[in-house]
Design goal:
This protein is mainly α. Helices cover 47% and strands 10% of the residues.
Amino acid sequence: MIEFNTIKPIGSIYEEEFRKKSLGTPTTKLVNIIAHILNPNHFHFILEQVSDKGIEKFMQKLGGGYTRYFNEKYSRNGVLFQGKFKSVHIDSDEYLLYLSAYVNLNDRIHKLPDGSSFSSWNEYLGQNQQEEICLKDIILDRFKDKEDYRKFAEDTAETILIKREEDERFSELLLE
C-alpha cells in the first residue's frame, strides 16, 4: 500500500522483492490512508485524496500492481479482482467514525478466522509491530483516548452484527 501511494511509476514490486529493498516512502502521495483492511476476498479503505485524482490513481495502481505482482510470483495470468472499485463520499463526522469501526473490525463483522486479515486496528490501538501507515488523528482526536475509541469501535461492530442477524431472520420470515 505504501509503495503504490506515489505519483511516480514504481516498476515491478515482484522484482524489487528479490533485490530485498523497499522502494521507499513516497515523496508525493496520492492519498492519506485513514483506515484499511485486507481480507482474503475483499478489502476496504478510508482514504483522503491529497493529489489530483489521487484515489482513482491509488486504486488503479494497487489493483493493477498487486495483480502483476501476484501473477509474476505464481506464474499465472488474468485478473484477480472483479469489476471496478466502488467509492462512497463521507459527508459527516458520524459516518466517518462509523466507517472507521466497520473497516477496522471488518474481519469480525464477516466472522473471518483470526489472522486471515490485515487491518489498521492494531495501529489504532497502538499495538502495531510494523510501520504505521495510517493518518489516525482524524479519527482518534474525536475520542478521549485509544481505549475510548476501542470501546466505540467494538460496540459499533456488535451493533452491525446484531442488525445483520435481525435482517437475516426477517428475510427468512418473509420467504416462509
